[in-house]
């Protein structure tokens, strides 16, 4: 197989396999991360030619500086009530995540995924969109539902796969779906939703609608063909869509370098497709809001898609089935130089006299009480452990609009089997 | 009524549905200005505009995903995959997304979409333009699989598929686009014009999904077929002088079990025929269904006549294709057993 001995005048080849800068036992090292000063990145008009954004894809749009001041051209200048609402929603996501993580550890459900450190991306993004814009999320955008007032009890019932589960016990926990909340049904097959968002947006444009779509994808799954299809179609048809890449730098145990992150930025993919691109500090709620609004304005003006890379860090494990301490340094998340999105927005509100520690603690307590109350409600309808959704006949429904003969037959067989088990 | 070949009938179905329902949109490679490599979408862009009939990039993955998004929005996309052999880049979107959307979202979304694709051999298309991958789709819960065998059914079934609220993969036997090829490849092909099913109503009508057609009544044996093989079965039965009952399944999922069962119980013998490779082909499913339901009526084993379990060879097309000789030998065996 190896022909090296027959070709002595040619140097031997070797393969580069990317490796993250630090592994367990190593010092956490983020020295390679370049962080431009807040406010330093130019803001083109949202109607500018796509190419006018292309130098921005190697930079980082940031609004909140180290003192919590909002600075520079990307400051969305939001009123204090909106800022407090964004803060509240991010806090709610974290409280909810902690509660449900614990519920999984208590055996009340099979699986959970937290969004710790990434709350700003979904929450501030949702507030920058219209309520009826359609989002095509991954499993880490529960903040969209929180920001759009989806009932916590229903979220929990889905997580518990209990009698109140709106998805009838069919989906893995956290794979929510709500048309009314503009939250597309989550797929466990990564990246598939990304081109679907483009298709939805194209349909909206064909129909002369004014709603836009927002797709979400992780850094790891940008390597899928679906990502390429999404960017190609979005660019070709100038689809009114925002293509959000949430670069939290980890795909389970695989660092972003394995998806090409060593070579260039994810935002830089926009250059090749000729579409607008932005690279944004994902832990800066104001920057997330500003970039999303910029892209939404652009899409609504029929100027086509924007690819936004939200640069962030997955603070915790991939899911309840994952232990990141076996593949990356302990406490890497705490050392992330762009900080925590909740702490940063809180600091901003405190610095502007719109918030204080006491109110923050009161709000935290209130959210905790709200989540506990919701949990109590949800558990009245059972948990996966105690009283899961078990309506065997319904297992065969909604495969098709109507039950064909073979499913009717299998439904009867399954019911007979259940009956036999009871005896 | 107009005499149409299958291409014209399919084209007519598009025109009728785009006229009736502004939510119907058509996309695919070369389907716009040009009207498709087989001309099935001819004139749609001119009549209904570029926003409703447009060319796509060469990306079956993208075509299916975009159609999924469009259907989720509320349109009724009809996506053409230029050859069934090219459908595989879109397979994940069909299997993981399209087929499961209604179920996984508990009805929050459903996908009224059609994926049309020419399939099958007999045109010297080599291994990348001749495949019959229908069984890959019948195996997936949540999609319907439809295959017409003549112009009348092609239009009526396509209209039903477009109006259906579930995703349909619609396979078009391209060998019979222009005439009912019966497998006697050395003979000149008769055009559709001389076939009764070429009389096609100009307006809207439907042929229901899930209903087979008995295209020839007989007593000696039941032949289950679809697509091109319907015509091969009819011609072979005639050539061999066998009083076969030939059933054109038309829809594979959900298959019309009643018609199958009734016929096999009557004839006591069953032969299943398809162009696709044999192992795990749809014929295996049919044979299993027949033995489960008609075992005590059977006088002989159910026989499968299929393409060989090899890729589709270019120069050896007629050694591969399950034509009248292979079918004739099998018929004899089935009747002797």
Write up what this structure looks like.
The complex is a heterodimer of chains A (423) and B (337). Chain A is built from eleven helices and seven strands. Chain A has helices at residues 80-105, 119-128, 142-147, 152-160, 193-206, 225-236, 269-273, 285-300, 341-351, 357-380, 405-422; strands at 134-136, 213-218, 241-247, 250-251, 254-255, 276-281, 306-311. Chain A is globular. The mean pLDDT of chain A is 97. In chain A, 36% of the residues lie in helices and 8% in strands. The relative contact order of chain A is 0.16. With 423 residues, chain A is α/β, with parallel strands linked by helices. Helix content of chain B is 35%, strand content 18%. Chain B has helices at 6-20, 44-48, 60-73, 91-97, 101-104, 134-138, 151-163, 228-240, 257-267, 282-294, 317-320, 324-336; strands at residues 2-3, 24-28, 53-55, 76-80, 114-119, 144-146, 168-173, 199-200, 213-216, 221-225, 244-248, 251-253, 270-277, 303-307. Chain B has a seven-stranded mixed beta sheet, with helices on both faces. A five-stranded mixed beta sheet of chain B has the order 9-11-10-13-14, sandwiched between helices. In chain B, helix 1 runs parallel beside helix 7 and helix 8 packs across helix 12. Chain B is globular and about 60 Å long. The model of chain B has no long low-confidence stretch (mean pLDDT 97). Chain A binds chain B through residues 134, 136, 166-168, 170-171, 175, 177-179, 184-185, 187, 189, 192, 195-207, 213, 225-226, 228-230, 232-233, 236, 398-401, 404-406, and chain B through 25, 51-52, 56-57, 59, 61-62, 65-70, 72-75, 77, 89, 92-93, 96-97, 101-110, 141-142, 144, 164-166, 210, 253-255, 257.
């Amino acid at each position: 197989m190896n022909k090296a001995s027959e070709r002595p005048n040619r140097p031997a080849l070797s393969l580069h396999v990317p490796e993250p800068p630090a592994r367990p036992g190593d010092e956490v090292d983020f020295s390679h991360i370049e962080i431009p000063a807040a406010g330093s990145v130019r803001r083109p008009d949202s109607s500018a030619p796509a190419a006018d954004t292309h130098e921005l894809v190697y930079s980082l749009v940031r609004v909140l500086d180290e003192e919590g001041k909002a600075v520079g051209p990307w400051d969305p200048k939001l009123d204090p009530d909106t800022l407090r609402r964004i803060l509240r929603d991010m806090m709610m996501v974290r409280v909810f995540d902690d509660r449900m993580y614990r519920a999984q550890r208590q055996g009340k459900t099979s699986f959970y995924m937290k969004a710790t450190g990434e709350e700003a991306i979904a929450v501030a993004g949702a507030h920058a969109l219209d309520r009826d814009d359609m989002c095509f999320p991954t499993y880490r955008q529960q903040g969209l539902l929180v920001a759009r007032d989806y009932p916590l009890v229903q979220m929990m019932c889905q997580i518990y796969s209990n009698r109140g589960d709106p998805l009838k016990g069919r989906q893995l926990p956290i794979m929510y779906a709500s048309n009314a909340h503009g939250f597309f049904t989550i797929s466990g097959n990564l990246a598939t939703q990304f081109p679907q968002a483009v298709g939805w947006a194209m349909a909206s444009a064909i129909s002369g609608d004014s709603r836009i779509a927002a797709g979400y994808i992780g850094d790891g799954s940008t390597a899928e063909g679906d990502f390429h299809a999404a960017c190609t179609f979005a660019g070709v048809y100038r689809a009114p869509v925002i293509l959000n890449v949430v670069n939290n730098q980890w795909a389970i145990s695989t660092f972003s370098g394995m998806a090409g992150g060593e070579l260039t930025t994810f935002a830089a993919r926009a250059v090749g497709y000729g579409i607008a691109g932005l690279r944004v500090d994902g832990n800066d709620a104001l920057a997330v809001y500003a970039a999303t609004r910029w892209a939404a304005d652009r899409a609504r003006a029929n100027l086509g898609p924007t690819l936004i890379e939200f640069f962030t860090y997955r603070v915790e494990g991939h899911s309840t089935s994952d232990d990141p301490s076996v593949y990356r340094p302990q406490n890497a998340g705490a050392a992330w130089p762009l900080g925590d999105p909740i702490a940063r927005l809180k600091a901003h509100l405190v610095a502007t006299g719109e918030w204080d520690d006491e109110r923050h603690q009161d709000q935290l307590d209130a959210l905790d009480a709200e989540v506990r109350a919701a949990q109590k409600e949800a558990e009245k309808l059972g948990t996966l452990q105690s009283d899961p959704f078990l309506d065997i006949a319904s297992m065969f429904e909604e495969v098709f609009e109507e039950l064909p003969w073979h499913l009717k037959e299998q439904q009867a067989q399954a019911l007979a089997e259940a009956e036999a088990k009871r005896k | 009524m107009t005499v149409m070949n299958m291409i014209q009938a399919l084209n007519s179905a598009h025109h009728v549905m785009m006229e009736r329902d502004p939510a119907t949109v058509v996309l695919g490679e070369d389907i716009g200005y040009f009207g498709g490599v087989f001309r099935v979408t001819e004139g749609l862009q001119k009549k209904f505009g570029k926003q409703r009939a447009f060319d796509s990039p060469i990306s079956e993955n993208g075509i299916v995903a975009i159609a999924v998004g469009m259907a989720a929005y509320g349109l009724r996309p009809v996506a053409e995959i230029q050859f069934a052999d090219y459908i595989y880049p879109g397979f994940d979107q069909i299997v993981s997304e399209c087929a499961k959307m209604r179920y996984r979202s508990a009805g929050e979304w459903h996908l009224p979409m059609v994926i049309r694709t020419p399939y099958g051999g007999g045109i010297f298309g080599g291994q990348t333009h001749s495949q019959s991958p229908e069984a890959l789709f019948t195996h997936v819960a949540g999609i319907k699989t439809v295959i017409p065998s003549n112009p009348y059914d092609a239009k009526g079934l396509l209209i039903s598929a477009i109006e259906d609220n579930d995703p349909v993969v619609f396979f078009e036997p391209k060998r019979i686009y222009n005439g009912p090829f019966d497998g006697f490849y050395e003979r000149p092909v008769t055009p559709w014009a001389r076939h009764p099913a070429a009389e096609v109503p100009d307006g809207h009508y439907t042929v229901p999904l899930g209903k087979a057609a008995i295209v020839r009544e007989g007593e000696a044996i039941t032949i289950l077929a679809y697509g091109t093989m319907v015509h091969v079965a009819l011609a072979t039965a005639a050539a061999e002088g066998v009083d076969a009952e030939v059933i054109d399944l038309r829809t594979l999922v959900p298959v019309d079990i009643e018609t199958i069962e009734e016929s096999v119980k009557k004839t006591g013998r069953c032969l299943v025929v398809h162009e696709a490779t044999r192992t795990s082909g749809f014929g295996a499913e049919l044979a299993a269904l027949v033995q489960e339901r008609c075992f005590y009526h059977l006088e002989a084993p159910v026989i499968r006549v299929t393409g060989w379990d090899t890729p589709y060879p270019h120069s050896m097309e007629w050694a591969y294709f399950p034509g009248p000789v292979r079918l004739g030998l099998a018929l004899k065996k089935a009747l002797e057993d």
